[in-house]
Task: inverse folding
């Protein structure tokens, strides 16, 4: 008998199959390998990318666009949005449009082509998160942008992709639909209860333990109650805060440690699964929101039963989050 | 320079690339072939499916679950939701859940394994739409259901799939998120303007012509202004009506004709592309809504630039809908 569970953050119901217990091996899928290196993102190929907008070097202060960097951020060569141009809004009959102003940057997570984020040393993952923060703080100064979206795609079930470990940052004058929905639901909950929805979720997950994947002093990783896909995992800071970039250094360090743990557990459980990672953070200028709460969502892309959701809009998850969390908890990292 | 266009129906912004004109051939992709027939859905294999819930036979009145049918509807063998059980709602801490009650049916569009919906004779496509309507009217009598979702997936970029031409019907005690969003936006527009949003869209598209793909006396097919994917096409009835199943026989006939035209144009332009089709219709009991307007959305699955959207929630479409519509308009069907 399936169960319908409501995602309190998106206000959306999810079909959770509970009929038979599946094991992680049921979800393993052949994966398209990345292109072999070296590529334009590798150390020594700095001249093949647009000039960097940020880099952390050893020793600090080395010349830009040369080797010696640990993490490097460059503009996307084929950006979805462009930084030049003014932001202009206009109508077209009943329709609304604006110029495609934005920034689209690539965070090169390692100089080494064959590294994966979860395999990097802890200090390197901290560097990646610091790059997310530093670029967000810089891009936020541009009054044209409403949201700075940080996301990562690891692997793919259809090729080709470069194979070099990267994240992306998209600054845009608009809100992604999912963030708008979350903000709305969180505000509604806060109006009703005078508490933060995510703080309440955190407390229930921490007490109940059934869906906890990994815990740190500052953040908690768990499978959400209405997980949309098998092995979906969220990481929430314990302290209320709406903006990722405003978290404390201790919170970012703990996030790095728990993120590494989660990625390594997913890797061992599912044999290097493709996954998406999205940092959910308040829109520009709403970092003080009492109702929103930044967090990180990791969605493995296992391709199982995604069919019904993709077409009908009704997500259907074959793996109860309690089972997924138990598998991941018990898996060494 | 890309353009940001707002989808007035979902209230969501879409990035539309306008930098260089692409041709349909740029979007053609290798497709996973369906399994060869015969399969359990073929004529003569009726005993391999669950007993039918509807069939149209020549001559009418032949015995159930035998051959001689033109269109046949059977329960899904592996349903996402099940019809048995009462609908029970309960809480779990701050979470909400209910029993996974629902119906999940398969519309077998042809007895012939190797047919495709767009290649069927017009009368056969009318039969398929009639089956959608007849099953919806029957399922709506079940007071547990809030929505009857009709969708179709043709082909895939990753296998395997049966290859037999089918649609699916999902009856559920919940609304798909996308339908909830549409209802909300349409109601807001109606509150403001005292007119139906979709009626206004229809009038603008009919006058402007730039995005029209095919027109009939009762329905209009066009590329939506803020198309999320290349060659996205909507078919709207000209007369206001919230519920698909309440359309007139003339409207359903014209829908069959224009749907056939659109599918054949897509087939010729894109070499039998995978696509999704979703019937957008009012929830059960809201068929009289002055603000909602039933329609059909066809989304080719071309896998091009879907990457940014899938992760960040910002849809990015490489093909301006005006160009897509012109290509399709000019293509013989």
Result:
């Amino acid at each position: 008998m399936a169960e319908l569970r409501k995602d309190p953050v998106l206000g959306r119901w999810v079909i959770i199959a509970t009929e038979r217990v599946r094991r992680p091996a049921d979800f393993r899928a052949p994966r398209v390998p990345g292109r072999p290196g070296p590529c334009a993102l590798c150390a020594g190929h700095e001249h093949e990318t647009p000039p960097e907008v940020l880099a952390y070097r050893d020793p600090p202060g080395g010349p830009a666009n040369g080797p010696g960097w640990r993490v490097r951020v460059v503009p996307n060569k084929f950006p979805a949005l462009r930084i030049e141009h003014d932001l202009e809004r206009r109508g077209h009959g009943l329709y609304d449009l604006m110029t495609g102003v934005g920034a689209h940057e690539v965070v090169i997570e390692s100089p080494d082509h064959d590294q994966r984020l979860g395999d990097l040393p802890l200090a390197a993952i901290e560097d990646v998160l610091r790059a997310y923060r530093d670029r967000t703080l810089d891009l936020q100064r541009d009054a044209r942008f409403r949201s700075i979206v940080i996301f990562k795609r690891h692997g793919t079930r259809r090729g080709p992709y470069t194979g070099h470990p990267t994240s992306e940052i998209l600054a845009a004058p608009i809100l992604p639909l999912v963030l708008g929905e979350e903000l709305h639901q969180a505000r509604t909950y806060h109006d009703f209860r005078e508490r933060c929805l995510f703080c309440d979720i955190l407390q229930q997950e921490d007490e109940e333990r059934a869906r906890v994947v990994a815990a740190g002093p500052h953040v908690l990783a768990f499978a959400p109650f209405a997980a949309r896909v098998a092995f979906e995992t969220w990481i929430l800071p314990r302290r209320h805060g709406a903006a990722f970039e405003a978290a404390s250094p201790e919170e970012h360090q703990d996030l790095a440690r728990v993120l590494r743990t989660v990625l390594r557990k997913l890797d061992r459980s599912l044999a290097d699964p493709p996954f998406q990672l999205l940092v959910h953070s308040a829109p520009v200028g709403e970092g003080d929101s009492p109702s929103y709460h930044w967090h990180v969502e990791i969605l493995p892309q296992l391709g199982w039963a995604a069919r019904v959701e993709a077409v009908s809009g009704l997500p259907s998850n074959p793996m109860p989050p309690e089972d997924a969390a138990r598998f991941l908890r018990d898996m060494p990292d």
Remarks:
- Chain A touches chain B through 66 residues (CB under 8 Å).
- The longest strand of chain A covers residues 147-154.
- The radius of gyration of chain A is 20 Å.
